[in-house]
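[step 3/7] fold_predict: job queued, chain A
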Amino acid sequence: MKDFNIQNIMETIEMIKVHHLDIRTVTLALSLRDCASEDIKKTGTKIYDKILRHAGNLAKYAEDLENEFSIPIINKRIAITPVSIVAESCTNPDYVYLAQMLDKAAEEVGIDFIGGYSALIEKGCTKGDEKFIESIPEALATTKRVCSSLNLATSKAGINMLGVLKTANVIKKAAELTAEADGLGAAKFVCFCNSVTDNPFMAGAYCGVNEPEAALNVGVSGPGVVRWAIENMPKTADLGEVANTIKKTAFKITTTGELIGRRLAKRLDIPFGVIDLSLAPTPAEGDSVAGIFEAMGLEAAGAHGTTAALAMLNDAVKKGGIMASSYVGGLSGAFIPVSEDAGMIKAARNGVLTIDKLEAMTSVCSVGLDMIAIPGNTPVETIAGIIADEMAIGMINKKTTAVRIIPVPGKTVGEEAKFGGLLGEAPIMKVNKLDSSVFVNRLGRIPAPLHSLNN
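[step 4/7] structure written:
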C-alpha cells in the first residue's frame, strides 16, 4: 500500500480529538520455535534474549509515532508462539518459570501485555499440554503482563469436551488465586473456537506456527467515531444508509491504522502483518459499542433488535476495512466485552442485558462472551456448559468465538467487580442454575458438523 488519502487522514485527526479514535494496540508477533531445547532454563534464557533483541525498541518507536501523528497508541504488546509447543521437548518442564521469564522480558521492554501462554487442544492433549494446562492458574496469578489462551474447538475438528472441562477448572482456580483482585487472573485468560493466529488483541493473541519469524499486527478501534457518524445522520435515514456510513467511517479508520502500522514495522525492520479493525470499546463515556446501538435507535443494549444491529455493524465494519487495505486480518468487527464498555455495564446493571442475550449476540459479533463477571460460587460444570455452548456457536457458524468469564470469589449477583484500567468493572451477572454436570462429564469430543467435509 503506497498511497494514502491525506484529506481522510486529517478528518480522522478530528475523530481522534473528540471521539476517542485510537490505535488500540500494536502487537509484535514473534516466533519462538528456535528457542526450544531439552533444558527449561536454557529455553527460558533464549526466549528472554530473543524478546529483548526484537522488541527492545517497540515501545519507544510506538511512542515516537504517537507524537509524530498525534494518534494515541493505547497498548504495546507481544504475541509469541504457544508456550506449550516451545517447551514440550524440555525434560524438566517448569511452565510457571517460563511465564515469569515472559513477564520479566515484557517489563524490560516496556510493553503492556504478552500473549501466547497458550495451547491448541481442539482434538486432544499431549502429555506436555496436560502439564501446561495445570500451570495456567499459577502462571496468571504470579505475573502481571502474561495472557493465556486455549483453543478448544474448530469447525473441522469439533469440540474437545475434556478440554472444556479442564478449562472451566482453570478459570475457577485462576480466579480463586487472585481473589484479592476480584479474580483478575481469569480476566487474563480466554478460550476459543477457531482461534486466529494473527490476532493482535489480548488475552487471545499468539503467533501461530504458520506465521513468519516476526510481524507487526495492528488493532484499530473507534466505536465513538461510528456512533458520532450515525448521530449526525437524519433520524429518517434507512438502515442501508446507516450501513453505508459505517463502511465509510471504517475505511478512514483502517487507512489511519495501516499508515501507523507500516511506519512502525519499517522502523522495527520487520514485515507489516495485518490490520485488525475491531471496534473495541473502553469504559470511557462515548467509547461504547452499546452507544452505537442507541444511535441506531435502540433504547439500550439488550433490547429486541440488538442482535440485528450488531450483525449489520460487524458486516459494515469489515466491508469498509477491506476496501481500505488488502491486509485486514485478526478478528475484525465489533467486540462486546461487558466490563470494558460503559453502555454494556449500564445495561447489565439494569438487568436488560443478560448472559443469554449476549450469547445470541455472539453468533454475529467478532468474538464471544467477553469480560463477564459471574458469582464466585458458580459450579465448574456450569462454567463448562457456558463454554461448550459458545464453542458450538463458533463451530457450526465457521467463525471465531470465545469465552472470557470471571467467577468473582466471594461475590454474588448485584455486587460489582473492579478490574481497573481498560478491563474496567462489571456487575455480577445472573447465571442459569440448572445442572449441566452429567452432560459435560460425558467428555469425549463433540463431532464436527457435516459442512467440515468440504475439501
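[step 5/7] annotate
The chain has a mean pLDDT of 90.
The radius of gyration is 21 Å.
exit 0
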